């Protein structure tokens, strides 16, 4: 049975999918829609969204998630990323979940942000916690238990 398409009439991205708000569309599939970000942090900053209204990644059915990365790859190639290896133009895929994590629009979206120089595109702040192997081991054990319970559910 096909997964039902879920919309929220008040959601700006649902409106874009339905064509009620105009967008510079890039790739569309039965499950995904992509378009240029209206307030880009770098040229060709694009958004890839599922045609399913869910606020956070874990709210989405897997088939929508599985559709998004191939679309993202297509757009990456279209903006001229074709080099292998670490040098040359790069890009970041960013997906924020929740206000604390800088999410503004509550419809899952993946940012594809070209990174061509230090000044434009994503600038990452990444405070690191000192390594504590005991704590890491305890956490690992707990997560494995939770994963096993999740699989059983
Ligand atoms: P967030 O911070 O939620 O991860 O990012 C939301 C993104 O959506 C922002 O980069 C913002 O510029 C973009 N955005 C918000 N409203 C619109 C819109 O109406 N059209 C387009 N194309 N992008 C939008
Ligand atoms: Zn929506």
TrEMBL record:
Residues 12-122 form the HIT domain. The active site is at 109 (tele-amp-histidine intermediate). Its cofactor is Mg(2+). PROSITE patterns: HIT_1 (PS00892), HIT_2 (PS51084). This is Adenosine 5'-monophosphoramidase HNT1. Keywords: Hydrolase, Magnesium, Nucleotide-binding. One of its GO terms (molecular function) is hydrolase activity. It holds the Pfam family HIT. It catalyses: adenosine 5'-phosphoramidate + H2O = NH4(+) + AMP. A motif (Histidine triad motif) lies at residues 107-111. Belongs to the HINT family. InterPro entries: HINT, Histidine_triad_CS, Histidine_triad_HIT, HIT-like, HIT-like_sf. One of its GO terms (biological process) is nucleotide metabolic process. It comes from the Eukaryota.
């Amino acid at each position: 049975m096909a997964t039902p398409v879920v919309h929220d009439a008040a959601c700006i991205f649902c409106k874009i999918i339905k064509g009620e708000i105009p967008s510079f569309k890039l790739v569309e599939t039965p499950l995904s829609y992509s378009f240029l970000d209206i307030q880009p942090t770098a040229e060709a900053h694009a958004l890839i969204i599922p045609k399913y209204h869910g606020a956070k990644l874990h709210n989405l059915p897997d088939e929508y998630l599985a559709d998004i990365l191939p679309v993202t790859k297509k757009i990456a190639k279209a903006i001229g990323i074709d080099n292998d290896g670490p040098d040359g133009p790069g890009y970041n895929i960013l997906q924020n979940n929740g206000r604390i994590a800088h999410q503004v629009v509550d419809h899952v979206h993946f940012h594809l942000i070209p990174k061509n120089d230090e000044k434009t595109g994503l600038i990452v702040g990444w405070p690191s916690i000192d390594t504590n192997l005991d704590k890491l081991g305890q956490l690992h054990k707990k997560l494995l238990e939770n994963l096993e319970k999740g699989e059983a559910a």
